[in-house]
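Troubleshooting log. The previous run stalled partway through. Resubmitting the same two chains, unchanged.
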Amino acid sequence: MRTGGVLNIFGKLLILIALCLLSPIPFSIYFNDGMVMTFLSCSLIGTISGFTLVALFAPESDLGYRDGFAVVVLSWLGLAILGALPFYFSGEMNAFVDCFFESMSGFTTTGSTILTTVEVLPKSVLFWRALTHWIGGMGIIVLSLAIMPLLGIGGMQLFQAEMPGPTKDRLAPRIQDTARILWSVYLLFTLVEILLLMIGGLDFFDATCHAFATLATGGFSTHTASVGYFNSVYIETVIIVFMFLAGVNFSLHYRVLSGKLSAYWQNEEFRFYVGISLFAIVLLVLVNMYHHVYDNLGDNIRTAFFQVFSILTTTGFGTADFEQWPPVCKVLLVSLMFVGGCAGSTGGGIKVVRVLLFFKYARMQLTHLVHPRSVSAIKMGKIKVPQEVMLSILGFFALYIAFFLLATLLVTALGVDVLTGSTAVIATLNNIGPGLNLVGPAQNFGHLPPLAKLVLSFCMLAGRLELYTVAVLLTPDFWAMARKPVWRWQLQGTGK
Amino acid sequence: MRTGGVLNIFGKLLILIALCLLSPIPFSIYFNDGMVMTFLSCSLIGTISGFTLVALFAPESDLGYRDGFAVVVLSWLGLAILGALPFYFSGEMNAFVDCFFESMSGFTTTGSTILTTVEVLPKSVLFWRALTHWIGGMGIIVLSLAIMPLLGIGGMQLFQAEMPGPTKDRLAPRIQDTARILWSVYLLFTLVEILLLMIGGLDFFDATCHAFATLATGGFSTHTASVGYFNSVYIETVIIVFMFLAGVNFSLHYRVLSGKLSAYWQNEEFRFYVGISLFAIVLLVLVNMYHHVYDNLGDNIRTAFFQVFSILTTTGFGTADFEQWPPVCKVLLVSLMFVGGCAGSTGGGIKVVRVLLFFKYARMQLTHLVHPRSVSAIKMGKIKVPQEVMLSILGFFALYIAFFLLATLLVTALGVDVLTGSTAVIATLNNIGPGLNLVGPAQNFGHLPPLAKLVLSFCMLAGRLELYTVAVLLTPDFWAMARKPVWRWQLQGTGK
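Second attempt completed without errors. Output:
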């Protein structure tokens, strides 16, 4: 690892985020919430830290993909710390660990909150909170569609072929092109959702914050009652549609927008994603009808649609307290939490494609037991899935279970009960938001012990970066290859 | 599938179990519990059914391994139904579904009970209850060490080389030889444990029943308080040692008994099994010490040892109500439930070797990400693990999760709460016995809805037969290949 080069990039990123920290200022002025100086100072802290790093460490041109792991993890960690400052200075959160949790929950597009009442935060800080989602979502699209497939992380190499944009030999330009294309889709969707929400009666502030949280599959709302606050079928429908879209591979959106309208349905992952959603919705509606949870069928269907897409895409918005639903509905929703969105979407979780391949493999094994001489291969669409992809999915599941177990053990060791602790880990590791019991949709994470909040923040990061990225940094091998940083002053006189 | 041949073998097996149904009679006479006629009639029912099948269907010599799936599943099902009769006729269980649950729990060596008070059963029925464990354990040793590796089920082909006994070309004699050798080890251990328990003061009846339940990693006791009833350090120690031995690959025992004393330690799965156990024990002792769960360290260590081996080997005996332990201990014990015993032991669960290979694979993937050019293979001991074995483990996990999810959804759909329902499925699918909450170690399964009991009985069977065996029978492909049965009378005049 080239420590100096990594820190140089990290410095540049801090400067970029410092610029973003200026964007809540217009809201602060408009709502007169007295946070202008706070955001200015936070931005200044970011800028100074960033420039210091850039001044100290020279860029290195020969950064390898190993350095990518360090850049990515360091960036998300640094972003979370810098992004926590406005929360801290707002004075509404006492401990810095709470601010860090909230900020990490934002940038990882998780949406778990430590706030009992969201409205206590100044409007500009609420905007910042939603913006962390949007920035995080932007990062993850590029990461999952342009960078991770090249690293061969947990079966994602299958999507190498799906990268849009002109193919060039060198890595960096291709990533830049891909990023530009995908981000324009992301931006377009965000703008359309803002517009549609404003047509539904939301003011620009609420519309923007909710659009940010929807497209990033984050889930932070500007109201404690989440989307339920608006109690509007139109608003819920708009958000359902955009949650659904945010859970789809963004390169598919690009293709459809480029005119290939059949791209959605030709994609097997997309079909499976739609299938799971519809199956879950029908099941929820039937069970809730049987148990008379809702007075009329309309409410039943509407809440089922909203909750399924909110959980499956790992957004975590709420219009109903599913803690009050029958046990089987809770089990179904927890199962959906693990699935998550499609690969290349902003959604978290295990990803639809991995789940699909997983079960395809089990079915193939059964066929093989019945017909031992049959030669069968697993296909995704028309592409034959190589064995190594299947094997790296095996590795992904192993890591996933290891993280899940370890985190649950740690959180419960800190005194949290079994159901709250395990579902808090599920909710953060899959970047969803709410869990069950004391971290259910009508509850929050504020009452957990500070150390548990740190463990859960780590889960959010690990889950968001597909585990491998974080796990690699925990291996001694990785650090054994770290080089001493190259300081700028060492380059003096070398002619560089 | 050769339906006729399968039914012929099944008939012979029924006759064998009908003979076993005579063995509780001496106990019935000794304790004068009035069950002699019951056991005689149960035995008669079995004998008549068996002979009818044998009379109707001719044996077929060319049975393929596909027929093996049908024989195995049919046998366990038939055994459970026949074995339920003594419970039913004892009059202490009201519904037949309860008797079936108890009997299936016996033959699959699960040890979950529907009884609130075990002592209500006549002594001879309690003996039969323990004997079902012992018979089931006998079946599973041969199945897991001699038959499943040949079928290549879920990574078990790795153990093909471990089969003891003289190697011959044809399948049947080899299985018979292997069976004879392994059963003598099983019998030897049972006799030694009976002897040691009797030295500790148990009468012949209690000693035999507990030895049966230990060696089969079953868990049925003759007392409601389970092994805690005896409150004796000696008895607990003996049972701990034999639970530990029952969780080890029986072909390893054979090698050690044949003089290769180093066989245990040379086996990587064995070392990992010991490692997990010690890690869990130390953790439990420390947490329970920190929370002052026990007054003195001795009790703490003793209960930790007992509970860890009881859960890890999937025996399910209890000397403590771990429902009362801190949450982290419960999470740890539930995690151990998934691991289970070594492959080729009588223990259930996922099996130590699969878990070991699973995490080895994850570690290899991480190494590969750091050193992309490194060529590394996964080894077990000195043997290189083929990719297909790793892939079949992937398939196993997928099936495992599918069964777990489906069963949990069904059980909670019947109104059982989330924690009770999910841990009831874990406890039965892994053939352990107790779960958490309303099916915790101080509770029982009696209060569950009848349909839930059937679902859980199915879980026991599926878990015991390594999922694949049961899952294969659920595929339409399997039945498409079924042949019409050959009736005896059709052979008349054909000269056979």
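Takeaways: The radius of gyration of chain B is 22 Å. The first helix of chain B runs from residue 3 to 20.
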